[in-house]
Structure formats: structure tokens, C-alpha cells
Design brief:
- This protein has 266 residues and is α/β, with parallel strands linked by helices.
- It has 2 domains: 126 residues, NIF3 (NGG1p interacting factor 3)-like (Udp-n-acetylmuramoylalanyl-d-glutamate--2,6- Diaminopimelate Ligase, Chain: A, domain 1), CATH 3.40.1390.30; 117 residues, NIF3 (NGG1p interacting factor 3)-like (Udp-n-acetylmuramoylalanyl-d-glutamate--2,6- Diaminopimelate Ligase, Chain: A, domain 1, 3-Layer(aba) Sandwich), CATH 3.40.1390.
- 32% of the residues lie in helices and 24% in strands.
- The chain contains 9 helices and 11 strands.
- The strands form 2 sheets. The protein has a 6-stranded mixed β-sheet with strand order 5-6-8-9-10-7. A 5-stranded mixed β-sheet has the order 1-4-3-2-11, with helices on both faces.
- Helix 7 links the parallel strand 8 and strand 9.
Length: 266
């Protein structure tokens, strides 16, 4: 199967026109006519990931974060981004990113977080052009839960050792707002929708004050909030892999073994 067909399938789920204006989702390196037998899925394309891809004889890497955000004037290998691009071109590995376009769809990044947390009645937190697109998501727990116990549940499910959070001003949690990645811009929307807690990442010090004792902010970390995106992308690809298996063609998509989180908690 060539990359063009894979891209068409991916973009039916997360069309590129849903990405934010600053973003760079889509095919970044490689030809859409290239044939693909092996796909590697990751959050970030680091040098370790590209080396893993080379070892696995990967044809295509699908990442959440684009390897190129800003313009590049030279490719001399002086930065990790340049080295990744050079290796990808040298080894004929295509690079494709599904970033904010996958964030902004109903069955995207935030829906996967809601699924992991066991939320029901989930809706887009800040709707876009249609009610099925937009930023963040809000849902409900099946039954209200003690706030401290819910914090402990988040730590277990989202595999985090530390959560930066505001005072537990809500004794019990029922309505939960989430946003994978940097979601502080949605805080007021979470408050307006009467969420008891807002789970996201990358809050700055002074932004925690903006909760004004109306909501609990739980900053679980950027990587941690988006880690299940890799699982989501694999699920999106599954129908394609099934079709190829029926034709006895070696088509496989796997999630990287590399933890690309640049932040270490000691």
C-alpha cells in the first residue's frame, strides 16, 4: 500500500484543515507514492526513534508532534531535527504528523483520554465550526468520586508519579474536563461548563491562580497527557492492516519502544 492511500485513510479521521494555523501536520518528508510495509508510531521523532525505525526497516513514521515546526534554512546535522531529517532521507523513511488535527476531532486525542478515565456523556469542550470538532473534551464519571481518590486514580491510569494541582476545592468529582498537551487556554471554558476538575498540561505558575477556587487544575505533564495518542493512531490504522493481511501482504504498524519524554522527575 502506498503512503497516499494511508494518508487518505488517516485524514478521513483527522482532516488537515482542522489543524491550528501554527501547526505543520501532514507529510513532512518523503513521497506519497512510496510503498509501505512497516510503520512506526511515536509522539516525537527523536534520534533514538529514527535509529529504531532504521533497525526495524520502517518505511513510514507517524508522529503526533511534527519534527518541523519552524522554517529550516540549512540541513547540516547541527541539531537533532536536522539529523533526523538527514537520516530519514538517507534511509528513505517518510515522516508524517497528526497533531492538532487529531486533537480537534470528536474521536481524537481527548476522546482517548476520556476513554482511559472511564468518562461518559463526552462532548467537545470548546466547539469549532461543527459540534464534532474543537478543543478539549468534557464528560462525567459514572458516579461521583472523592477528589483525593480521583487524583490517585489519575496517577495510576495516566502513569504519572507527580501531579501539579491546585487545592482540592471540590470534595467530590463528577464532571471532568480534559485536554491533551498544553490546555491552559481552555480553563475558563472548563469553568463555564461546570467541570469539577480540568486535566491537562503545561500550566504556568500564575495560571494556577486563575482557577479562583472554582475548579481543580491537574497538570499531569505534556507527554503523559498525550501518551495514549500512539495507541489511538494504531487503532485508526488497524482497518488498513486487516485489508492487507487478507491479501497476504506484510503490513505492520507498531508503537515505538522509545520513551521520548524529555522531562525527568527525580
Amino acid at each position: 500500500m502506498n503512503i497516499k492511500k494511508i494518508i487518505n485513510h488517516l485524514e478521513k479521521v483527522a482532516p488537515l484543515n482542522y489543524q491550528e494555523s501554527y501547526d505543520n501536520s501532514g507529510l513532512i518528508v518523503g513521497s506519497s507514492d512510496k510503498e509501505v510495509k512497516r510503520i512506526l508510531i511515536c509522539l516525537d521523532i527523536t534520534e533514538e526513534v529514527i535509529d529504531e525505525a532504521i533497525g526495524l526497516k520502517t518505511d513510514l513514521i507517524i508522529s503526533h508532534h511534527p519534527i518541523i515546526f519552524l522554517g529550516i534554512r540549512k540541513i547540516t546535522g547541527s541539531t537533532y531535527v536536522q539529523r533526523v531529517i538527514l537520516k530519514a532521507i538517507e534511509k528513505n523513511i517518510a515522516l508524517y504528523a497528526m497533531h492538532t488535527n487529531l486533537d480537534n476531532v470528536l474521536k481524537g486525542v481527548n476522546a482517548k483520554i476520556c476513554e482511559k478515565l472511564g468518562l461518559t456523556k463526552c462532548k467537545i469542550l470548546l466547539p469549532g465550526d461543527t459540534r464534532n470538532t474543537g478543543a478539549g473534551m468534557i464528560g462525567e464519571l459514572r458516579s461521583s468520586t472523592d477528589s483525593l481518590q480521583f487524583i490517585k486514580k489519575i496517577k495510576k491510569i495516566m502513569k504519572v508519579g507527580v501531579i501539579r494541582h491546585t487545592e482540592l476545592v471540590k470534595k467530590r468529582i463528577k464532571r471532568v474536563a480534559v485536554c491533551g498537551g498544553s490546555g491552559s487556554f481552555l480553563l475558563q471554558d472548563a469553568i463555564k461548563k461546570k467541570a469539577d476538575i480540568f486535566i491537562s498540561a503545561d500550566f504556568k505558575y500564575h495560571q494556577f491562580f486563575d482557577s479562583e477556587n472554582k475548579i481543580i487544575i491537574a497538570d499531569i505533564g505534556h507527554y503523559e497527557s498525550e501518551q495514549f495518542t500512539m495507541e489511538l493512531v494504531k487503532e485508526i490504522l488497524t482497518p488498513l492492516a486487516a485489508v492487507k493481511r487478507k491479501k497476504i501482504v506484510n503490513f505492520a504498524a507498531r508503537i515505538t519502544n522509545i520513551n521520548t519524554n524529555p522531562i525527568i522527575y527525580s
